[in-house]
Design brief:
Layout (H helix, E strand, L loop, with lengths): L1 H6 L8 H13 L6 H11 L12 H12 L2 H4 L3 H24 L35 E3 L8 E3 H12 L3 E4 L6 H13 L8 H24 L13 H13 L6 E6 L4 H8 L4 H8 L18 E5 L6 E5 L9 H15 L8 E8 H6 L1 H9 L11 E6 L9 H4 L16 E5 L3 H18 L3 E6 L17 H9 L3 H11 L5 H16 L38 H11 L10 H14 L7 H14 L4 E5 L14 E2 L6 H4 E2 L12 E5 L4 H13 L5 E5 L10 H8 L2 H5 L6 E5 L14 H6 L7 E3 L4 H13 L6 E5 L24 E2 L12 E5 L3 H11 L6 E6 L1 E3 L3 H9 L6 E9 L5 H9 L7 E7 L10 H16 L4
Parallel strand pairs: 4-6, 4-7, 7-8, 8-10, 9-10, 11-14, 11-15, 15-16, 16-18, 17-18, 20-21, 20-23, 23-24
Antiparallel strand pairs: 1-2, 3-9, 5-6, 12-13, 17-22, 19-21
Helix pairs in contact: 6-7, 9-10, 9-19, 9-20, 10-17, 13-25, 21-23, 23-29, 25-26
């Protein structure tokens, strides 16, 4: 046989690509291929000079060339039969490969049997030169798991059972051979056939019965009320139950679930154990809440501790707005925070589970962003288990030509080489099978994995929607469909696993329990104390003005400065960075005022030294977008990142808190939502997201509107997330000037967020420390001037860090006699320095006072009133801002200022004229506008 393998033509021509693929398997794992092929390739590898070749495939390619040069006579007429035999053998191996790649296209996935099965001629044996006469012939199966030789008919049967039953696998897009072989062995070894015992099958029936019965009960009891039914996709409850009951075997202690509203009420009751009576109270409008606004029932989250064979499993369902998939990065951030809190370096104790809709999964860009985060250093969570409830209709569209441009709704997951398991939702055992496989894969390879559960939606988008209006033919089939519970019950009855009376009894028992507002049995642990639970209690009910001393003694500041300006011996700094480091040493010695970068660095250094962790992310946060931070130092003589970088803030003290700075992916929406989720699960960490330019935050407006600004009033979720938004009008055009201050102030109510526009470097030091040291956790929005980062007048003496704290209002200390002041200018941010310089240049120091309001919300009413009271004889108060009149703070704080006027004082405005654009793009026009409103501010009324 070995001689013939060298001498016959089946090794080249049309078979060459296949044999090259076989040779690639040999290079990855010689034991994965047939013994005869392995011997042949071994011989090629031993050929003279083979070990010195740089190209791995060169030996096999050269063998093709040499064989092609041999005259046909040399191959001989006697080789014809063997050549035909080997052609058949190669055809069998190609057929096996085709099923692995394309078998999912012929799988039985659609419960309604409406789905068009996409043509795959490669799955036809005839396409590989195989016919009926070959069905009884024994062939070598190559790497197909099982006996090494089988009749073609049995090979075909095994392939169809493995790849074309209720499950369709997509995994050949994975480039890691180990992962592919691991998956192949799992489902080829057992032919993708679940083998559950009777007890497990009864549990599956019980779960799917509960899912269906709850929906039907609600449908008849609360007619016409929205609940976004799970009917048609009830096997999702079975999948979650299987996951919860088995994840503990891998050391998992927490599962954090994110999902939109489809099926959410079912998950709350049947998975997390929410009492039916509490759900009924929400339907009946009897639910009382301490929340300022609350939210609809199908957006609410829930947490519980569920008993499993491996111990209690804490399961949390994240709160979620109607914006479908936006919760996904929030969940990822929450999981990462929990893993860090547990020092879970293996990322197995807390695991994210995301439940998607088919159209949303394919259509919403936040999924691409979240997948892109999954394997990065600062955002990875060790892999996510994705469950797509694929009802094949999206909102109203069932024609895939209108829903997506890909074959499957899950194709976006291939960007991170996630394996995808398509499964028929009417086969709950198959759903459990792929759930277990997904769990094991995630734990083995720390990567995302996707379960595409193909099902249907029995009702409309909501219960008041008539789906027959747009999908008449589909819903005629659905009306006749028995449902997954009935199909599975009949299957178990036929197999003798359960009697019909017992199956019907499950329905009655569940309905009887619902009538009492209870569960059939206790499904959650009560009064269980988790070791790693976060305690938010001491942040509840506190006030923003809680007295907090954020100063540090000079000796402590100098000790911190010495640490943050130290670099390892032999570490070559860039000349610009070396200049920054030397300047920071001078600042600590009092030879120079402290700039913004140093003030921020000292704040971080003080926190991590005292055990607090700091997490800072953004698209250029290590260096700082404006090259002011330099928290990551780069050795100019070393290429590798692990050797060529040094982070001083990670080397402050023994047992210090963690400092992590991340240059994030270019996706504001996913990253900001992720950081929100992280901060919601890390009450004692300083978590900050920095926009490259302030206006770029509008790419994450969904996260801002639906989580950051309203998460507390809707769901009671406290969050201390900080945002740094570069803001300031310097003639750099619309997107590089404004952080849309007016939008943020419009969102302010009920002390929900903090909006700060600091004008001095020392303020930055104090407000960052205040955010953690004060027992108060609300989102902190910092409007940071780009120009002031290097503006000397805005820098602070180091002594300003040794006393006091953050000042919400900074009065005018230069005014000699407040009684002689004729006009008071109120402002925020960098415009103060334009006003200060203009007043000095025009000799108006006695006539005009300038007061800075550094905290725009919560508005510091008492402090502003105290400053205005100093100038009770002034007749004019002007609010001055850089932003156009219809933007900025003016319309949002005008009513507050009017309420503080004294006597006959009047309130006026000075700023740029109203504009549709945040800023002008022409420097000449920018300068003209600046001059105009400064003139307005400086021109006293006669």
């Amino acid at each position: 046989m070995m001689q013939s393998m060298y001498s016959h033509s089946y090794l080249f021509g049309g078979n060459a690509p296949f044999i090259e693929e076989l040779y690639e398997q040999y290079l990855a794992d010689p034991n994965a291929i047939d013994e005869q092929w392995r011997a042949y390739f071994d011989k090629l590898a031993q050929a003279p000079g083979a070990s010195e070749r740089d190209v791995p495939h060169l030996p096999i390619q050269e063998s093709f060339i040499q064989l092609a040069k041999q005259p046909s006579a040399a191959r001989g007429k006697s080789a014809v039969a063997e050549w035909e035999s080997m052609q058949k053998q190669v055809g069998v191996l190609k057929l096996i490969s085709a099923y692995r790649v394309l078998g999912a296209r012929q799988a039985n996935l659609d419960p309604l049997m409406r789905m068009d099965q996409h043509a795959a001629p490669e799955l036809d044996p005839a396409n590989h030169g195989l016919g009926d006469a070959d069905m009884a012939v024994q062939f070598n199966v190559g790497s197909l798991v099982g006996p090494q030789r089988l009749p073609l008919s049995e090979i075909l049967a095994r392939l169809k059972q493995t790849y074309c039953g209720s499950i369709g696998f997509e995994y050949m897009h994975l480039t890691d051979s180990q992962e592919k072989h691991w998956l192949q062995h799992r489902f080829e070894a057992d032919l993708s056939t679940p083998r559950f015992d009777a007890a497990r099958k009864k549990r599956i029936l019980k779960q799917i019965t509960a899912a269906e019965t709850l929906e039907r009960y609600l449908h008849t009891k609360y007619v016409g009320q929205k609940r976004f039914s799970l009917e048609g996709g009830e096997s999702a409850i079975v999948a979650l139950d299987h996951l919860i009951q088995n994840a503990g075997q891998h050391g998992t202690q927490e599962l954090i679930i994110g999902m939109a509203h489809r099926g959410r009420l079912n998950v709350l009751v049947n998975t997390l154990g929410k009492l039916p009576r509490d759900l009924f109270a929400e339907f009946e409008g009897k639910k009382t809440s301490d929340l300022a606004s609350g939210d609809v029932k199908y957006h609410m989250g829930f947490s519980s501790d569920i008993p499993t064979p491996s111990g209690p499993m804490h399961v949390s369902l994240a709160f979620n707005p109607s914006h479908l998939e936006i919760v996904n990065p929030v969940v990822e951030g929450s999981v990462r925070a929990r893993q860090e809190h547990r020092n879970d370096s293996e990322r197995k104790q807390a695991v994210p589970v995301l439940i998607h809709g088919d159209s949303a999964f394919a259509g919403l860009g936040v999924n691409q962003g979240t997948f892109n985060l999954s394997q990065t250093r600062g955002y990875g969570t060790g892999g996510t288990i994705h469950l797509v409830i694929n009802n094949q209709v999206g909102f109203t569209t069932s024609d895939t030509r209108d829903v997506r441009s890909t074959l499957y709704c899950t194709d976006v997951a291939k960007m991170v080489e996630a394996p995808i398991f398509h499964v028929n939702g009417d086969d709950p055992e198959a759903v459990c099978y792929v759930t277990q496989l997904a769990l094991d894969y995630r734990m083995a390879f720390k990567k995302d994995v996707v379960i595409d559960m193909v099902c249907y939606r029995k009702l409309g988008h909501n219960e008041g929607d008539d789906p027959f209006l747009t999908q008449p033919m589909m819903y005629k089939r659905i009306a006749k469909h028995e449902g997954a519970r009935a199909l599975y019950a009949n299957r178990l009855i036929a197999d003798g696993v359960i009697g019909k009376d017992e199956a019907d009894g499950l329905i009655k028992a569940y309905r009887d329990a619902l009538d009492k507002g209870e569960h059939v049995e206790q499904t959650v642990l009560s009064n269980y104390k988790r070791e790693h639970a976060n305690d938010w209690s001491h942040f509840i009910g506190t006030h923003w003005a809680h007295p907090t001393d954020t100063s540090l003694p000079l000796a402590d500041l100098q000790r911190l400065a010495d640490k943050v300006t130290s670099v390892p011996e032999g570490f070559k700094l860039h000349p610009t960075v070396e200049k920054v480091i030397n300047a920071r040493r001078a600042m600590a010695e009092g030879k120079q005022d402290v700039d913004w970068g140093m003030a921020e660095t000292l704040a971080y250094a003080s926190l991590v030294t005292n055990g607090y962790s700091v997490r800072l992310s953004g698209e250029d946060s290590g260096r700082g977008t404006f090259a002011h931070r330099h928290s990551v130092l780069h050795d100019q003589n070393r290429e590798r990142w692990d050797q060529g970088t040094y982070v001083p803030l990670r080397n402050m003290a023994e047992g210090q808190g963690n400092f992590l700075v991340i240059d994030s992916i270019l996706n504001e929406e996913a990253v900001l939502a992720y950081e929100y989720g992280y901060a919601c699960s890390a009450p004692n960490d300083l978590v900050i997201w920095e926009a490259q330019f302030g206006d770029f935050a509008n790419g994450a407006q969904v996260a801002i509107d639906q989580f950051i600004s309203s998460g507390e009033t809707k769901w009671g979720r406290l969050c201390g997330l900080g945002l740094i938004l570069p803001h300031g009008y310097d003639g750099q055009g619309p997107e590089h000037s404004s952080a849309r201050l007016e939008r943020w102030l419009q969102l302010c109510a009920e002390h929900n967020i903090q909006v700060i526009m600091p004008s001095e470097a020392g303020q930055m030091f104090h407000l960052l420390r205040r955010q953690i040291l004060r027992p108060y956790r609300k989102p902190l929005i910092i409007f940071l001037s780009k120009r002031l980062l290097r503006y000397k007048d805005s820098m602070s003496p180091i002594e300003s860090l040794t006393t006091g704290g953050f000042r919400p209002v900074i009065g005018d200390s230069t005014v000699a006699d407040p009684k002689k002041v004729k006009r008071v200018l109120l402002c925020a941010g960098q415009v103060y320095y334009d006003l200060f310089n203009a007043r000095r240049d025009r000799g108006l120091d006695k006539d005009i006072a300038i007061v800075r309001i550094e905290q725009l919300y919560p508005f510091p009413t008492e402090q502003v009133a105290a400053e205005l009271a100093r100038y009770s004889t002034a007749r004019e108060v002007l609010w001055v801002q850089e932003e156009p009149r219809n933007q900025g703070a003016w319309y949002q704080i005008r009513h507050r200022l009017e309420g503080l006027l004294i006597g006959k004082q009047t309130l006026a405005f000075a700023g740029r004229p109203s504009s549709a654009s945040p800023a002008v793009g022409y420097m000449s026009k920018h300068v003209a506008q600046l001059k105009a409103f400064i003139d307005d501010a400086m021109t006293l009324t006669k």
